[in-house]
Amino acid sequence: xxxxxxxxxxxxxxxxxxxxxxxxxxxxxxxxxxxxxxxxxxxxxxxxxxxxxxxxxxxxxxxxxxxxxxxxxxxxxxxxxxxxxxxxxxxxxxxxxxxxxxxxxxxxxxxxxxxxxxxxxxxxxxxxxxxxxxxxxxxxxxxxxxxxxxxxxxxxxxxxxxxxxxxxxxxxxxxxxxxxxxxxxxxxxxxxxxxxxxxxxxxxxxxxxxxxxxxxxxxxxxxxxxxxxxxxxxxxxxxxxxxxxxxxxxxxxxxxxxxxxxxxxxxxxxxxxxxxxxxxxxxxxxxxxxxxxxxxxxxxxxxxxxxxxxxxxxxxxxxxxxxxxxxxxxxxxxxxxxxxxxxxxxxxxxxxxxxxxxxxxxxxxxxxxxxxxxxxxxxxxxxxxxxxxxxxxxxxxxxxxxxxxxxxxxxxxxx
Length: 415
Ligand SMILES: Cc1ncc(COP(=O)(O)O)c(C=O)c1O
Fold this sequence. Notes:
Helix 5 crosses helix 10. It is globular, with a radius of gyration of 22 Å. The chain is built from 14 helices and 14 strands. It has two domains: 156 residues, Aspartate Aminotransferase, domain 1; 220 residues, Aspartate Aminotransferase, domain 2 (3-Layer(aba) Sandwich). It is an alpha/beta fold and 415 residues long. 44% of the residues lie in helices and 13% in strands. Bound molecules: pyridoxal-5'-phosphate (PLP). The site of pyridoxal-5'-phosphate (PLP) has 14 residues, from helix 5.
Protein backbone atom coordinates (compact mmCIF):
# COMPACT_ATOMS: atom_id res chain seq x y z
CA UNK A 1 0.00 0.00 0.00
CA UNK A 2 1.32 3.48 -0.86
CA UNK A 3 1.66 5.74 2.18
CA UNK A 4 0.29 9.23 1.54
CA UNK A 5 2.81 11.81 2.73
CA UNK A 6 2.03 15.52 2.97
CA UNK A 7 4.79 17.30 1.10
CA UNK A 8 5.52 20.36 3.23
CA UNK A 9 8.25 21.48 0.81
CA UNK A 10 5.79 21.89 -2.08
CA UNK A 11 6.37 25.63 -2.53
CA UNK A 12 10.16 25.20 -2.53
CA UNK A 13 10.44 23.11 -5.67
CA UNK A 14 11.48 24.73 -8.92
CA UNK A 15 8.90 25.18 -11.66
CA UNK A 16 10.79 22.64 -13.77
CA UNK A 17 9.81 19.89 -11.32
CA UNK A 18 6.25 20.39 -12.55
CA UNK A 19 7.18 19.71 -16.15
CA UNK A 20 9.50 16.77 -15.40
CA UNK A 21 8.08 13.38 -16.28
CA UNK A 22 8.46 10.02 -14.67
CA UNK A 23 9.97 7.24 -16.74
CA UNK A 24 7.50 4.40 -17.27
CA UNK A 25 10.49 2.11 -17.83
CA UNK A 26 12.13 3.06 -14.53
CA UNK A 27 8.75 2.62 -12.78
CA UNK A 28 8.41 -0.84 -14.33
CA UNK A 29 11.93 -1.85 -13.32
CA UNK A 30 10.81 -3.54 -10.08
CA UNK A 31 7.98 -5.44 -11.79
CA UNK A 32 10.26 -6.45 -14.64
CA UNK A 33 12.73 -8.10 -12.26
CA UNK A 34 10.02 -10.32 -10.66
CA UNK A 35 10.79 -13.94 -11.52
CA UNK A 36 7.20 -14.66 -12.64
CA UNK A 37 7.21 -11.78 -15.15
CA UNK A 38 8.47 -11.93 -18.72
CA UNK A 39 9.76 -8.45 -19.42
CA UNK A 40 9.19 -6.83 -22.79
CA UNK A 41 9.69 -3.41 -21.22
CA UNK A 42 13.37 -2.53 -20.68
CA UNK A 43 15.99 -1.91 -23.34
CA UNK A 44 18.52 -3.98 -21.42
CA UNK A 45 21.41 -5.61 -23.28
CA UNK A 46 22.24 -9.25 -22.56
CA UNK A 47 25.22 -8.82 -20.26
CA UNK A 48 25.30 -12.60 -19.74
CA UNK A 49 26.70 -12.95 -23.26
CA UNK A 50 29.77 -10.82 -22.48
CA UNK A 51 33.06 -12.62 -21.76
CA UNK A 52 32.98 -11.70 -18.07
CA UNK A 53 36.39 -13.30 -17.45
CA UNK A 54 37.93 -10.87 -19.97
CA UNK A 55 35.96 -7.95 -18.57
CA UNK A 56 37.25 -8.89 -15.15
CA UNK A 57 40.82 -8.80 -16.52
CA UNK A 58 40.08 -5.39 -18.05
CA UNK A 59 38.90 -4.10 -14.65
CA UNK A 60 41.99 -5.52 -12.91
CA UNK A 61 44.30 -4.08 -15.58
CA UNK A 62 42.61 -0.69 -15.18
CA UNK A 63 43.77 -0.59 -11.56
CA UNK A 64 47.09 -2.42 -12.01
CA UNK A 65 48.29 -0.39 -14.96
CA UNK A 66 46.58 2.97 -14.55
CA UNK A 67 45.38 3.03 -10.95
CA UNK A 68 46.81 6.45 -10.18
CA UNK A 69 45.08 8.29 -13.00
CA UNK A 70 42.03 6.00 -13.03
CA UNK A 71 41.23 6.90 -9.41
CA UNK A 72 42.08 10.59 -9.74
CA UNK A 73 39.94 13.52 -11.04
CA UNK A 74 40.32 13.78 -14.78
CA UNK A 75 39.59 16.33 -17.49
CA UNK A 76 35.95 17.31 -17.99
CA UNK A 77 35.88 16.22 -21.61
CA UNK A 78 37.30 12.75 -20.92
CA UNK A 79 40.52 10.80 -21.34
CA UNK A 80 42.37 11.13 -24.61
CA UNK A 81 42.87 7.34 -24.75
CA UNK A 82 39.10 6.79 -24.51
CA UNK A 83 38.54 9.36 -27.24
CA UNK A 84 41.01 7.47 -29.43
CA UNK A 85 38.85 4.37 -28.99
CA UNK A 86 35.82 6.42 -30.05
CA UNK A 87 37.71 7.64 -33.15
CA UNK A 88 38.36 3.99 -34.01
CA UNK A 89 34.69 3.06 -33.48
CA UNK A 90 33.51 5.97 -35.64
CA UNK A 91 35.80 4.89 -38.48
CA UNK A 92 33.57 1.81 -38.85
CA UNK A 93 30.84 4.29 -39.91
CA UNK A 94 33.32 6.02 -42.26
CA UNK A 95 33.37 9.05 -39.99
CA UNK A 96 36.82 10.55 -39.43
CA UNK A 97 37.12 12.47 -36.16
CA UNK A 98 39.98 13.37 -33.83
CA UNK A 99 39.95 13.37 -30.02
CA UNK A 100 39.39 17.15 -30.16
CA UNK A 101 35.97 16.55 -31.75
CA UNK A 102 34.75 14.46 -28.79
CA UNK A 103 33.48 14.83 -25.23
CA UNK A 104 33.08 11.67 -23.16
CA UNK A 105 29.84 11.61 -21.16
CA UNK A 106 28.16 9.42 -18.54
CA UNK A 107 26.22 7.53 -21.20
CA UNK A 108 24.25 9.15 -23.99
CA UNK A 109 21.74 10.11 -21.30
CA UNK A 110 24.10 12.69 -19.82
CA UNK A 111 24.75 13.98 -23.33
CA UNK A 112 21.01 14.61 -23.74
CA UNK A 113 20.86 16.50 -20.46
CA UNK A 114 23.95 18.56 -21.38
CA UNK A 115 22.43 19.43 -24.75
CA UNK A 116 19.25 20.57 -23.00
CA UNK A 117 21.33 22.63 -20.58
CA UNK A 118 23.38 24.13 -23.42
CA UNK A 119 20.59 25.01 -25.85
CA UNK A 120 17.13 25.22 -24.27
CA UNK A 121 15.61 28.29 -22.61
CA UNK A 122 12.14 27.90 -21.05
CA UNK A 123 9.56 28.20 -23.82
CA UNK A 124 11.98 27.43 -26.68
CA UNK A 125 10.70 25.06 -29.32
CA UNK A 126 12.51 21.80 -30.05
CA UNK A 127 11.55 19.03 -32.46
CA UNK A 128 11.59 15.30 -31.79
CA UNK A 129 10.10 12.28 -33.45
CA UNK A 130 6.69 11.28 -32.07
CA UNK A 131 6.98 8.84 -30.43
CA UNK A 132 10.57 9.26 -29.26
CA UNK A 133 12.98 8.01 -26.58
CA UNK A 134 11.32 8.77 -23.27
CA UNK A 135 14.66 9.43 -21.58
CA UNK A 136 15.23 12.25 -24.08
CA UNK A 137 11.84 13.71 -23.21
CA UNK A 138 12.80 13.47 -19.54
CA UNK A 139 16.16 15.14 -20.10
CA UNK A 140 14.86 17.94 -22.34
CA UNK A 141 11.66 18.66 -20.41
CA UNK A 142 13.72 19.68 -17.36
CA UNK A 143 14.66 22.79 -19.37
CA UNK A 144 11.00 23.59 -20.07
CA UNK A 145 10.83 23.62 -23.86
CA UNK A 146 7.77 23.37 -26.02
CA UNK A 147 8.23 20.08 -27.86
CA UNK A 148 6.85 19.55 -31.36
CA UNK A 149 6.56 15.86 -32.21
CA UNK A 150 6.86 14.74 -35.82
CA UNK A 151 5.38 11.32 -36.65
CA UNK A 152 7.38 8.68 -38.50
CA UNK A 153 6.45 5.93 -40.93
CA UNK A 154 8.47 2.93 -42.13
CA UNK A 155 11.03 5.33 -43.70
CA UNK A 156 11.59 7.32 -40.51
CA UNK A 157 10.62 10.87 -39.58
CA UNK A 158 8.02 12.35 -41.96
CA UNK A 159 10.02 15.15 -43.57
CA UNK A 160 6.88 16.61 -45.19
CA UNK A 161 5.49 17.19 -41.69
CA UNK A 162 8.87 18.41 -40.49
CA UNK A 163 8.86 21.02 -43.23
CA UNK A 164 5.35 22.14 -42.20
CA UNK A 165 6.45 22.40 -38.57
CA UNK A 166 9.53 24.45 -39.49
CA UNK A 167 7.41 26.72 -41.72
CA UNK A 168 4.86 27.30 -38.98
CA UNK A 169 7.59 28.04 -36.40
CA UNK A 170 9.46 30.44 -38.71
CA UNK A 171 9.07 33.32 -36.25
CA UNK A 172 10.83 31.44 -33.47
CA UNK A 173 12.67 28.53 -35.01
CA UNK A 174 13.26 25.35 -33.02
CA UNK A 175 16.60 25.14 -31.25
CA UNK A 176 17.22 21.68 -32.65
CA UNK A 177 15.77 18.60 -34.29
CA UNK A 178 16.43 15.51 -32.18
CA UNK A 179 16.29 12.22 -34.07
CA UNK A 180 17.18 8.55 -33.59
CA UNK A 181 17.44 7.70 -37.28
CA UNK A 182 18.66 4.12 -37.00
CA UNK A 183 16.52 1.47 -35.26
CA UNK A 184 14.59 4.17 -33.53
CA UNK A 185 13.62 3.89 -29.88
CA UNK A 186 10.72 3.16 -29.49
CA UNK A 187 9.67 2.62 -33.11
CA UNK A 188 12.39 0.25 -34.38
CA UNK A 189 12.22 1.97 -37.79
CA UNK A 190 15.22 3.29 -39.75
CA UNK A 191 15.21 6.55 -41.68
CA UNK A 192 15.83 5.97 -45.39
CA UNK A 193 18.75 7.67 -47.11
CA UNK A 194 16.36 9.89 -49.04
CA UNK A 195 14.66 11.07 -45.83
CA UNK A 196 18.06 11.67 -44.22
CA UNK A 197 19.04 13.93 -47.09
CA UNK A 198 15.68 15.73 -46.93
CA UNK A 199 16.01 16.23 -43.18
CA UNK A 200 19.49 17.70 -43.56
CA UNK A 201 18.37 19.92 -46.44
CA UNK A 202 15.53 21.28 -44.29
CA UNK A 203 17.79 21.77 -41.27
CA UNK A 204 20.28 23.70 -43.41
CA UNK A 205 17.59 25.73 -45.19
CA UNK A 206 16.03 26.80 -41.88
CA UNK A 207 19.32 27.01 -39.98
CA UNK A 208 18.35 24.50 -37.29
CA UNK A 209 20.78 22.14 -35.53
CA UNK A 210 20.37 18.38 -35.83
CA UNK A 211 21.11 15.94 -32.98
CA UNK A 212 21.59 12.33 -34.09
CA UNK A 213 21.26 9.82 -31.23
CA UNK A 214 22.72 6.49 -32.34
CA UNK A 215 22.90 3.84 -29.61
CA UNK A 216 21.70 0.99 -31.83
CA UNK A 217 23.50 1.69 -35.13
CA UNK A 218 25.75 -1.38 -34.87
CA UNK A 219 22.92 -3.76 -34.01
CA UNK A 220 21.69 -4.60 -37.54
CA UNK A 221 20.15 -8.04 -38.17
CA UNK A 222 18.99 -7.63 -41.78
CA UNK A 223 18.95 -5.12 -44.64
CA UNK A 224 21.62 -2.72 -45.87
CA UNK A 225 23.35 -0.11 -43.68
CA UNK A 226 22.34 3.52 -44.18
CA UNK A 227 24.96 6.26 -43.58
CA UNK A 228 24.79 8.22 -40.34
CA UNK A 229 23.50 11.78 -40.56
CA UNK A 230 26.91 12.85 -39.20
CA UNK A 231 28.60 11.23 -42.19
CA UNK A 232 26.35 13.23 -44.51
CA UNK A 233 26.83 16.54 -42.66
CA UNK A 234 29.69 17.53 -40.34
CA UNK A 235 27.50 20.00 -38.46
CA UNK A 236 25.30 17.23 -37.06
CA UNK A 237 25.75 16.64 -33.32
CA UNK A 238 26.30 12.90 -32.92
CA UNK A 239 25.66 10.94 -29.71
CA UNK A 240 27.15 7.49 -29.17
CA UNK A 241 27.33 5.06 -26.26
CA UNK A 242 28.92 1.75 -25.29
CA UNK A 243 25.73 0.80 -23.41
CA UNK A 244 24.13 -1.41 -26.06
CA UNK A 245 27.30 -2.91 -27.56
CA UNK A 246 29.19 -3.43 -24.30
CA UNK A 247 27.90 -2.45 -20.86
CA UNK A 248 25.47 0.26 -19.69
CA UNK A 249 26.86 -0.12 -16.16
CA UNK A 250 30.04 1.65 -17.26
CA UNK A 251 28.02 4.76 -18.14
CA UNK A 252 30.24 5.73 -21.04
CA UNK A 253 28.95 7.67 -24.02
CA UNK A 254 30.17 10.50 -26.20
CA UNK A 255 29.26 13.64 -28.10
CA UNK A 256 30.78 14.61 -31.44
CA UNK A 257 30.05 18.22 -32.39
CA UNK A 258 31.58 21.26 -34.08
CA UNK A 259 34.25 22.87 -31.89
CA UNK A 260 32.34 25.99 -30.69
CA UNK A 261 29.44 23.82 -29.56
CA UNK A 262 31.78 21.38 -27.78
CA UNK A 263 33.33 24.29 -25.89
CA UNK A 264 29.90 25.32 -24.57
CA UNK A 265 28.95 21.74 -23.70
CA UNK A 266 32.24 21.34 -21.87
CA UNK A 267 31.40 24.44 -19.81
CA UNK A 268 27.95 23.04 -19.06
CA UNK A 269 29.52 19.73 -18.03
CA UNK A 270 31.96 21.30 -15.55
CA UNK A 271 29.07 22.30 -13.32
CA UNK A 272 27.41 18.92 -13.74
CA UNK A 273 30.16 16.50 -12.74
CA UNK A 274 33.63 18.12 -12.99
CA UNK A 275 34.65 14.98 -14.87
CA UNK A 276 33.34 11.53 -15.67
CA UNK A 277 34.62 8.32 -14.08
CA UNK A 278 38.19 7.82 -15.31
CA UNK A 279 38.11 4.26 -13.98
CA UNK A 280 35.14 3.38 -16.19
CA UNK A 281 36.86 4.96 -19.17
CA UNK A 282 40.01 2.92 -18.60
CA UNK A 283 37.93 -0.26 -18.45
CA UNK A 284 36.31 0.71 -21.76
CA UNK A 285 39.77 1.28 -23.26
CA UNK A 286 40.95 -2.17 -22.15
CA UNK A 287 37.80 -3.83 -23.42
CA UNK A 288 38.12 -2.39 -26.91
CA UNK A 289 41.91 -2.70 -27.07
CA UNK A 290 42.51 -6.07 -25.43
CA UNK A 291 39.46 -8.30 -25.93
CA UNK A 292 37.98 -9.76 -29.16
CA UNK A 293 35.06 -7.32 -28.85
CA UNK A 294 34.04 -7.62 -32.51
CA UNK A 295 33.54 -11.37 -32.07
CA UNK A 296 31.56 -10.76 -28.88
CA UNK A 297 29.40 -8.23 -30.70
CA UNK A 298 28.77 -10.70 -33.51
CA UNK A 299 27.55 -13.19 -30.89
CA UNK A 300 25.27 -10.56 -29.36
CA UNK A 301 23.90 -9.59 -32.76
CA UNK A 302 23.22 -13.25 -33.60
CA UNK A 303 21.35 -13.71 -30.30
CA UNK A 304 19.28 -10.50 -30.70
CA UNK A 305 18.49 -11.43 -34.28
CA UNK A 306 17.04 -14.80 -33.20
CA UNK A 307 15.01 -13.05 -30.49
CA UNK A 308 13.66 -10.53 -32.95
CA UNK A 309 12.64 -13.31 -35.32
CA UNK A 310 10.96 -15.16 -32.44
CA UNK A 311 8.99 -12.03 -31.61
CA UNK A 312 7.97 -11.37 -35.21
CA UNK A 313 6.85 -15.00 -35.67
CA UNK A 314 4.82 -14.90 -32.45
CA UNK A 315 3.24 -11.57 -33.41
CA UNK A 316 2.25 -12.98 -36.80
CA UNK A 317 0.81 -16.05 -35.16
CA UNK A 318 -0.98 -14.63 -32.12
CA UNK A 319 -1.69 -10.91 -32.44
CA UNK A 320 -5.25 -9.96 -33.39
CA UNK A 321 -5.78 -8.24 -36.76
CA UNK A 322 -6.69 -5.01 -34.93
CA UNK A 323 -3.03 -4.65 -33.85
CA UNK A 324 -0.39 -3.29 -36.22
CA UNK A 325 3.32 -3.28 -35.56
CA UNK A 326 6.63 -2.16 -37.06
CA UNK A 327 9.20 -4.52 -38.64
CA UNK A 328 12.67 -3.51 -37.41
CA UNK A 329 15.91 -4.57 -39.11
CA UNK A 330 17.87 -4.06 -35.91
CA UNK A 331 17.96 -2.47 -32.46
CA UNK A 332 15.94 -3.63 -29.47
CA UNK A 333 12.31 -2.63 -29.97
CA UNK A 334 9.20 -2.59 -32.02
CA UNK A 335 6.11 -0.46 -31.78
CA UNK A 336 2.56 -1.73 -31.57
CA UNK A 337 -0.54 0.32 -32.39
CA UNK A 338 -3.96 -0.84 -31.18
CA UNK A 339 -7.44 0.50 -31.96
CA UNK A 340 -7.98 4.04 -30.62
CA UNK A 341 -10.32 2.89 -27.87
CA UNK A 342 -7.72 0.67 -26.14
CA UNK A 343 -5.70 2.45 -23.44
CA UNK A 344 -2.42 0.55 -23.00
CA UNK A 345 -1.74 2.33 -19.68
CA UNK A 346 -4.95 0.90 -18.23
CA UNK A 347 -4.28 -2.47 -19.84
CA UNK A 348 -0.88 -2.81 -18.18
CA UNK A 349 -2.21 -4.15 -14.88
CA UNK A 350 -4.00 -6.93 -16.80
CA UNK A 351 -0.78 -7.71 -18.65
CA UNK A 352 1.09 -7.86 -15.34
CA UNK A 353 -1.56 -10.28 -14.03
CA UNK A 354 -0.75 -12.41 -17.08
CA UNK A 355 2.96 -12.14 -16.30
CA UNK A 356 4.08 -9.71 -19.06
CA UNK A 357 5.31 -6.10 -19.03
CA UNK A 358 5.61 -3.59 -21.84
CA UNK A 359 5.99 0.19 -22.02
CA UNK A 360 2.70 2.06 -22.53
CA UNK A 361 3.05 4.36 -25.54
CA UNK A 362 1.91 7.71 -24.16
CA UNK A 363 5.15 8.26 -22.19
CA UNK A 364 7.05 8.26 -25.48
CA UNK A 365 5.02 11.14 -26.91
CA UNK A 366 5.99 14.73 -26.17
CA UNK A 367 2.38 15.69 -25.52
CA UNK A 368 0.81 12.58 -24.09
CA UNK A 369 -0.78 11.13 -27.24
CA UNK A 370 -0.34 7.48 -28.19
CA UNK A 371 -2.46 5.98 -25.42
CA UNK A 372 -3.36 3.13 -27.77
CA UNK A 373 0.25 2.16 -28.47
CA UNK A 374 3.06 0.31 -26.73
CA UNK A 375 6.76 -0.42 -27.02
CA UNK A 376 7.87 -4.04 -26.77
CA UNK A 377 11.51 -5.09 -26.49
CA UNK A 378 12.99 -8.30 -27.87
CA UNK A 379 16.53 -7.78 -26.52
CA UNK A 380 16.31 -9.26 -23.07
CA UNK A 381 14.35 -12.51 -22.87
CA UNK A 382 15.17 -15.84 -24.53
CA UNK A 383 13.20 -16.73 -27.72
CA UNK A 384 10.83 -19.19 -25.99
CA UNK A 385 9.99 -16.67 -23.29
CA UNK A 386 9.40 -13.99 -25.94
CA UNK A 387 7.01 -16.26 -27.83
CA UNK A 388 5.16 -17.06 -24.61
CA UNK A 389 4.99 -13.36 -23.62
CA UNK A 390 3.51 -12.45 -27.01
CA UNK A 391 0.96 -15.24 -26.72
CA UNK A 392 -0.11 -13.95 -23.30
CA UNK A 393 -0.12 -10.34 -24.44
CA UNK A 394 -2.24 -11.23 -27.45
CA UNK A 395 -4.81 -12.77 -25.09
CA UNK A 396 -4.87 -9.63 -22.95
CA UNK A 397 -5.25 -7.42 -26.04
CA UNK A 398 -8.04 -9.55 -27.49
CA UNK A 399 -10.02 -9.39 -24.22
CA UNK A 400 -9.49 -5.66 -24.00
CA UNK A 401 -10.40 -4.97 -27.63
CA UNK A 402 -13.59 -7.00 -27.22
CA UNK A 403 -14.57 -5.26 -23.98
CA UNK A 404 -13.81 -1.76 -25.30
CA UNK A 405 -15.65 -2.46 -28.54
CA UNK A 406 -18.73 -3.52 -26.54
CA UNK A 407 -18.54 -0.27 -24.53
CA UNK A 408 -18.09 1.80 -27.69
CA UNK A 409 -21.07 0.09 -29.36
CA UNK A 410 -23.17 0.73 -26.26
CA UNK A 411 -22.15 4.41 -26.41
CA UNK A 412 -20.46 4.16 -23.00
CA UNK A 413 -16.93 4.85 -24.29
CA UNK A 414 -15.93 7.70 -26.55
CA UNK A 415 -12.65 7.99 -28.36
C1 LIG B 1 17.74 6.45 -28.00
C2 LIG B 1 18.52 6.37 -26.73
N1 LIG B 1 19.31 7.39 -26.39
C3 LIG B 1 20.02 7.37 -25.25
C4 LIG B 1 19.94 6.30 -24.39
C5 LIG B 1 20.73 6.33 -23.11
O1 LIG B 1 21.79 5.47 -23.22
P1 LIG B 1 23.00 5.44 -22.18
O2 LIG B 1 22.91 4.15 -21.47
O3 LIG B 1 24.22 5.56 -23.02
O4 LIG B 1 22.84 6.60 -21.26
C6 LIG B 1 19.12 5.21 -24.70
C7 LIG B 1 18.98 4.10 -23.77
O5 LIG B 1 18.14 3.25 -23.86
C8 LIG B 1 18.39 5.25 -25.91
O6 LIG B 1 17.60 4.25 -26.28
